[in-house]
Automatic annotation (TrEMBL):
An MF annotation (GO) of this entry: nucleotide binding
Keywords: NAD, Nucleotide-binding, Oxidoreductase
Protein name, as recorded: Glutamate dehydrogenase
Organism: Linnemannia gamsii
Positions annotated as active site in the UniProt record: 117
Matches recorded under CDD domains: NAD_bind_1_Glu_DH (cd01076)
Residues reported to bind NAD(+): 201, 232
């Protein structure tokens, strides 16, 4: 971590976590921003960070308290937008970084949003359905005054899903006294959700993987794919790649690692995970030691679990042609440099996984107009947005001779800081 950042008093220099990664990414883009770099400090602190206590009554009659966050990093280009994560390791630094990556991502694909993110420090697997609902509703009530269809719109992230979004929408609506479907995206279809939203992030990963493969002359049919994370993003991406004739040769999740050089039967593995909650115990592939996953020879490696997975420790062993970041923040800056030195093309999170927020944007627009589009129309528009964003970022990378990540940051930060400059400071 470079030392010169002025940190807010609520962060500790030695415990910056993912926020430290984000600050280094901002340092790398600053020299390319010209006179807009005058505004760069705007990006180095969140606009608003709310920490809430979430008390609920457990099924056994006792009361439990959970720590919840909602961070709005930047709203220069529009309302805050970003997911909600339930995980036992959630921290303020992590939610801050995730909210900042949302600002960059939304600007990189040019959807009219700022960046935000939420989280609760909880292992949701330890809660009953009733407890999960009570926690979601209480959290929503606690952050009620800073979210809304025009202010900040949550969506699913790790360990949250369309049911959690339905509870959030209902709680917010009850507090408002009217149904406000546009307060969250990633809702069930019957409650104003969008066709194609569930698959959107993975579809975006697949589209940018195909575009980048084309740039380096790699054929997707027959390509060897390894995926870390087999949830919404990783599981559906595996299906899309295998439908396109690629071979998913390795998969890792929180329960284990699987390897099958001839290609895993993805539909069977998805069924196994739906029944058991994880990939462990699947008999259609060999179990592998977790660490060996990173050394496998592949054509495309897709981290789609949590941040900080590719570090200076495992990056030197990675033998792949393209890393497509399905997860947010999976690669540390040091690891990024190692991959670049090894000639591995890294397609960064802020473009690779932007398909989710793109269809969230479509969902929000559909909710406002109460007019819903067909799945074909959504997928078609999604693919167009992703291809155009990829092409313009690729062009910037070539022009400036920088990594695709820095190019994406150049495009995004220029848009955000131009908006900041034109709006000016109030008062
Ligand atoms: N859901 C979306 O629309 C969306 C959009 C953009 C980015 N993302 C990002 O994609 C990533 C995955 O999100 P998701 O929605 O698929 O979550 P999910 O909860 O559906 O799945 C998470 C997966 O990660 C695995 N995992 C957790 N800890 C792990 C570990 N230590 N080692 C290996 N695997 C582990 C889990 O087993 C699970 O398979 C996150 O970084 C998230 O921020 C998600």
């Amino acid at each position: 971590m470079s030392q010169h950042h002025v940190l807010p008093s609520y962060l500790r220099q030695d415990e910056l976590g993912p926020w430290g990664t984000y600050l280094q990414q901002i340092d790398r883009v600053t020299p390319y921003l010209g006179s807009l770099s005058r505004w760069i400090e705007t990006l180095k602190r969140p606009k608003r960070a709310l920490i809430v206590d979430v008390p609920i009554e457990l099924d056994n009659g006792t009361v439990a308290h959970f720590e919840g966050y909602r961070v709005q990093h930047n709203t220069s280009r529009g309302p805050g937008k970003g997911g909600l994560r339930y995980h036992q390791d959630v921290t303020l630094s992590e939610v801050m970084a995730l909210s900042a990556w949302m600002s960059i991502k939304n600007a990189a694909v040019n959807v009219p949003y700022g960046g935000a993110k939420g989280g609760i420090r909880v292992d949701p697997r330890k809660l009953s359905r009733g407890e999960l609902e009570r926690m979601t509703r209480r959290y929503t009530s606690e952050i009620n005054f800073i979210i809304g269809p025009n202010t900040d719109i949550p969506a699913p992230d790790v360990n949250t899903n369309e049911q959690v979004m339905a509870w959030m929408m209902d709680t917010y609506s009850m507090n408002q006294g009217r149904t406000a479907t546009g307060v969250v995206t990633g809702k069930p279809i019957t409650l104003g959700g969008s066709l194609g939203r569930k698959e959107a992030t993975a579809r975006g990963v697949f589209v940018v993987a195909c575009e980048s493969a084309r740039q380096i002359g790699l054929d997707i049919a027959g390509a060897r794919i390894a995926i870390q994370g087999f949830g919404n993003v990783g599981g559906i991406a595996a299906r899309l790649f295998s439908e396109a004739g690629a071979k998913v040769i390795a998969v890792q999740d929180h329960t284990g690692t699987l390897y099958r050089p001839a290609g895993i039967e993805v539909l069977k593995l998805l069924e196994h995970v739906a029944q058991t909650g994880g990939i462990v115990g699947f008999t259609g592939a060999e179990p592998l030691a977790a660490d060996e996953f990173w050394g496998l020879e592949t054509d495309i490696l897709i981290p789609a679990a949590l941040e900080g997975q590719i570090t200076e420790k495992n990056a030197p062993r990675i033998r792949t042609k393209i890393v497509v970041e399905g997860a947010n923040g999976p690669t540390t800056p040091l690891a990024d440099d190692i991959l670049n030195e090894h000639g591995i093309l890294v397609i960064p999170d802020v473009i690779a996984n932007a398909g989710g927020v793109t269809v969230s944007y479509f969902e929000w627009v559909q909710d406002f107009s109460s007019f819903f589009w067909s799945e074909d129309e959504i997928n078609h528009r999604l693919e167009r947005v992703m291809r155009e964003a990829f092409a313009s970022i690729w062009q910037v990378a070539l022009e400036h001779r920088v990594s695709v990540r820095t190019a994406a940051y150049i495009v995004a930060c220029t848009r955000i800081l131009m908006a900041r400059e034109m709006r000016g400071l109030y008062p």
